[in-house]
Design brief:
The protein has about 280 residues and is α/β, with parallel strands linked by helices. The protein has 11 helices and 7 strands. The protein has 2 domains: about 10-65, no CATH class; about 70-275, Vaccinia Virus protein VP39 (Rossmann fold, 3-Layer(aba) Sandwich), CATH 3.40.50. It is globular, with a radius of gyration of 19 Å. Bound molecules: S-adenosylmethionine (SAM).
């Protein structure tokens, strides 16, 4: 769950907070941007957590309008799910459209037939993954009964109730019983896992998920970067410590090859852990 503001609105003041105007003035022509950065003595971690660069939002809006125009078959269902979730008072912490489509396209490219998600919210990411993949069944876990009710309604309106199973319960308990079913052979192994719930349990979720995936499947853990806090070793907030735990442990785990991808966009500056289980 994101602990940062995810509002996509910004003011002129935000622009200057994020990128002071003086920095534009000192850029030298003909030199790549990354070599042209102004010198700073120290990273201000506190100010980076709430970044909202209008360029990120503008690029998301521009690119998405071309890569997924409103004429796409699932566009209305996705927008309905987002609006209904907001109307029901759910927090605005779902994936961005581009992130949702990225996960869905990964599942298509990898011919995933069974996917697993921890953290359903209103079903937005679930609808993305299932609606873009007619071959796929998704199991998604959510502990908040209100979120479960909203998600089930959104999924029903999207016509996906037959392929998305929403299980209500705490992630650890549900994953443990799913693992028992997979090990017993009464439930198929998963080809993709998306972990997007309480961050303190990320490593526990990862370990349980690892036992139920097919060879060469991806486990994706959302929100590990958090405006750069991942690398601020002095930060001991529990969700940051948990992000470091999952990144460090995945790096050491036998049979796992992982990478952290930093992302910017309408959801600010964050990133996910992308791990392949061999
Ligand atoms: C960031 S939201 C999920 C967003 C969703 N994946 C999307 O992009 O549309 C995180 C969700 O995890 C749920 N959650 C938090 N702790 C949980 C737990 N222990 N077990 C299951 N779900 C949990 C929250 O209630 C919330 O709905």
């Amino acid at each position: 769950m994101r602990g940062v503001s995810t509002s996509s609105t910004f003011s002129v003041g935000d622009i200057f907070t994020f990128w002071p105007i003086q920095q534009f003035r000192i850029l030298k022509p003909g030199i790549p941007l990354f070599q042209n950065r102004p010198m700073t003595t120290r990273t201000n971690w506190t100010s980076t957590i709430h970044q909202h660069d209008p360029r990120w939002t503008a690029v998301d809006a521009y690119a998405f309008s071309h890569s997924h125009p409103a004429s796409q078959p699932n566009a209305k269902a996705l927008e309905n799910a987002r609006m209904a979730s907001m109307a029901a008072g759910l927090p605005d912490i779902a994936l961005s459209p581009a992130q949702g489509k990225f996960l869905a396209l990964h599942c298509r490219a990898s011919a995933v037939t069974h996917a697993l998600e921890v953290g359903t919210l209103g079903g937005y990411s679930a609808i993305w993954v299932a609606s873009e993949n007619p071959q796929l069944r998704l199991t998604t876990i959510e502990y908040n009964p209100k979120h479960v009710a909203v998600a089930r309604k959104n999924i029903e309106l999207a016509g996906l109730s037959d392929r998305i199973e929403v299980i209500q319960g705490a992630g650890i308990d549900v994953l443990a019983s799913l693992r028992d079913e997979v090990v017993a052979g009464t439930r198929p192994q998963f080809g993709f896992v998306f972990i997007d719930a309480d961050k303190e349990n990320n490593w526990n979720y990862f370990k349980l998920a690892k036992d139920m995936v097919k060879s060469n499947s991806v486990i994706c853990v959302d929100n590990v970067v958090r405006g750069g806090r991942l690398a601020d070793l002095g930060n001991t907030e529990p969700y940051v410590v948990a992000s470091r735990e999952v990144v460090e442990n995945a790096g050491k785990e036998p049979g796992v090859d992982s990478v952290v991808i930093q992302t910017v966009g309408e959801k600010s500056y964050d990133g996910w852990l992308w791990a392949v289980v061999s």
